[in-house]
Structures are given as C-alpha cells and as structure tokens.
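subagent[fold] <- orchestrator: predict structure for attached chain, return tokens only, no commentary.
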Amino acid sequence: MAFLTVMILSYMIPAASSEISNKNSVKLQNGIWQAKVGKQMQIQADVTNGQDRVQPFAYIVQVQNQDGVTVSLSWLTGTLDSGQSLSPAQSWTPASTGVYTAQIFIWAGIDNPDALSLPLTMTITVS
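subagent[fold] -> orchestrator:
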C-alpha cells in the first residue's frame, strides 16, 4: 500500500459573472458558508501532490440537503505531477433555501475509490 499525500484546503467562490454584485453571493460567516438561492457558486479546493510520482485523481463534490438527500453530485478527473498543485472546482446552484452539507472527496479515480485524502466537509446556509 502506497502512502498518498494530497492536501485539501477548501474555499468557495461565486461563479464568474459580469455583475459585480454576484461576487458577494457567497461568504463565510462564523464558519458556515452563506449563499443565495439561484446564484451559482464554485466549490473549490487546493490540491497538491506531495508524492514523488504522477498521481491520477478524481475530484468529487457531493451536496446534500438537511435530510441527507444528495441534491448535487459532480466530479472531474485529471493527473498531478509530483509537487504540482491545482485548484479544481465544481459548480452548484442552490434551488431552495435551507442548510446543506458539501463534501469534497479526492479519489484515485472515479471508478477507483481509493481515498487520496480525508474527505472535506463544509456547511452551506442558503437564503
């Protein structure tokens, strides 16, 4: 079993938009992300390959509502060279108000669920 070092530092940014007001549609307040219904956001993390070899990966984002129902599941795949960093993101547009949980998983592949890092969880309050 190989040791894999992938660092995740999370943050969320509003999706690119021509309206300046949309840049403030997501903010962190008291450790909980605040968002608006109908405003697209990007759930993003910094990922670094701390190994001495190339590492394929899948960046998976799951968003669940307060009842534990998955309302969004998206992913992207790629490879990181040794020491390379990347800030992948997946978009999500909340359709209704409520408290949501977003989880970020870094796996060896979308069909290879070997975790390269512990999952990252964040709370999002949508108003």
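orchestrator: received. Logging for downstream: The longest strand covers residues 98-109. Residues 59 and 106 are 5 Å apart (CA to CA).
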